[in-house]
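Reply to thread "Modeling small-molecule complexes from scratch"

Following up on the discussion above, here's a worked example others can learn from. I took a protein sequence and the SMILES for adenosine-5'-triphosphate and predicted the complex. Inputs first:
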Amino acid sequence: MTIDVRIIDTKIHPWSDARGASCLVLFKYYGPSPGASTQKFGDQPVIEAHSLTKRYGSKTAVDSVSFVVRPGLVTGFLGPNGAGKSTTMRMIVGLDRPTGGSVTVNGKAYKDHHAPLHEVGVLLDAKAVHQGRSAYNHLLALGATHGIGATRVREVIEMTGLDTVAKKRVGGFSLGMGQRLGIAAAMLGDPSTLILDEPVNGLDPEGVMWVRELVRFLASEGRTVLLSSHLMSEMALTADHIIVLGKGRVLADAPVAEMISSSTVSSVRAVSPQAGEIARLLTSNDVTITSVDGQTLQIVGLTAAAVGEAAAAAGIVLHELTPLKGSLEDAYVNLTVDSVEYRTHPSALAAAALTDSEVSR
Ligand SMILES: Nc1ncnc2c1ncn2[C@@H]1O[C@H](COP(=O)(O)OP(=O)(O)OP(=O)(O)O)[C@@H](O)[C@H]1O
């Protein structure tokens, strides 16, 4: 296999630091060469779910879900707790049998692939590892099922920053180290598709950034990446496309920018000592103006340019004019407001706080 080693990041890596190296590099990637990658990965949908359904007794965890996940993109899989994300991911890789519908990876059910580790790399539960084994032996045992040897095992260990702990028992690993090992296992077969369920769970900020850069890099090679996370700000930086599940159904399936623009309201904040005059000037049926305080207005229905030009034409002084765009988090909250099954009520929080203070007395 052609090995390509590239430096794609120059941030201080905490683990390099721990080894005493004043190293600035930090992320090397071992995989196919760039030339090979474009030929290796096509542009056809890689994961295709059709009316995919899973019931556990009377509980419908996944309810007739259809979507495609395309190569060359990071697709974020979002949804409140219990929405059905993990169940869907498990069905994609054959760990759960659908009650109805179907899902294929590269045109086949996962179980029908001759060498699935080379097709799909999966991180579903980082703790599902033999606790008495070392990271190295765990990866070696996994690789042995596909004829993958020690060289590739060492590559993925280095790639995930686990070199200094590779011979240590997994049972002693922190949550973040376990996540890194799960990502190493997912990358072992150099797969064209990666399915990562909450890969940044438990990682420190450096680790979170590393996962972001890793998956963006893998997608840039034409690989398919499906990942779930509850960290909306991180997902906004990482994903190109988003699928939102709620109570087992697809609530939205769109590129990130489209999802934000269609599910949030853009507005303009104008600050002026003549705020009242601006409000009178701009009032119309299509414009909503809210007074935030005596000098600040929030205007929906006009662009910042239109507000600025109208104010200039009327000789009105503006101290601030800011276009406000919705975030992915705003879009997500708006989309899932009716689909949150496990909600904390403010009254319950107050009661808990009271109980705590009583206990501490
Ligand atoms: N083995 C099972 N037996 C019974 N119910 C299950 C089982 N696995 C999942 N469920 C139920 O199916 C629903 C979907 O669960 P799932 O874990 O897929 O949600 P999720 O979106 O991944 O949630 P989270 O964000 O909390 O991980 C939940 O109501 C869950 O309790």
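What I'd highlight from this example: The longest strand covers residues 59-69. The longest helix spans residues 205-220. Questions welcome below.
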